[in-house]
């Protein structure tokens, strides 16, 4: 499933803010896949894939109807996913307690950011989640994965910020009543 994580990661890097339902669905899939892999070791790969797909689709459906709430929840999962993976990479450990504590801390920070600073938070969190998904899925040494993560995160932030700024600076029609 590494190729699918890479594709979702690239989509999050490039379009996470613009298509926030993609951000929500992508984060739902990636986090659902990770949780299913960690908890359902003895299940076939297709079961884990279906669980991840279900989590992603549920996120998309809910995001259409409950936009602000779902974006906050997705911000929680994206922030938690990023921070727990960062902690595990920096500590070179696989301690479940540290992983859960950093997941919750990152999740709370991600949720707060998305609720109060929606567009900038979506840009940053979708770029971080996309970079994490891609970097974890490529067969590189840990140091190279770290460099790849940083480059991809910066690239995603730049691409999405440029699109966001250019969309906000579209020429406005002159109002004939003010002339």
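Sequence proposed for the structure above (179 residues):
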């Amino acid at each position: 499933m590494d190729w699918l994580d890479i594709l979702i990661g690239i989509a999050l890097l490039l379009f996470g803010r613009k298509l926030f339902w993609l951000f929500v669905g992508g984060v739902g899939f990636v986090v659902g896949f990770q949780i299913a892999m960690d908890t359902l070791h003895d299940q076939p790969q297709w079961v884990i894939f279906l669980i991840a797909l279900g989590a992603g689709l549920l996120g998309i459906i809910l995001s259409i109807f409950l936009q602000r709430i779902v974006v906050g929840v997705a911000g929680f999962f994206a922030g938690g996913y990023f921070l727990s993976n960062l902690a595990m990479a920096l500590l070179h450990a696989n301690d479940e307690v540290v992983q859960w504590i950093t997941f919750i801390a990152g999740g709370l920070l991600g949720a707060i950011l998305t609720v109060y600073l929606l567009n900038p938070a979506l840009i940053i969190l979708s770029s971080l989640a996309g970079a994490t998904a891609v970097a974890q899925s490529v067969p590189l040494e840990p140091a190279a994965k770290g460099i790849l993560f940083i480059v991809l995160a910066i690239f995603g932030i730049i691409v999405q910020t440029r699109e966001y700024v250019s969309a906000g600076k579209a020429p406005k029609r002159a109002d004939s009543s003010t002339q």
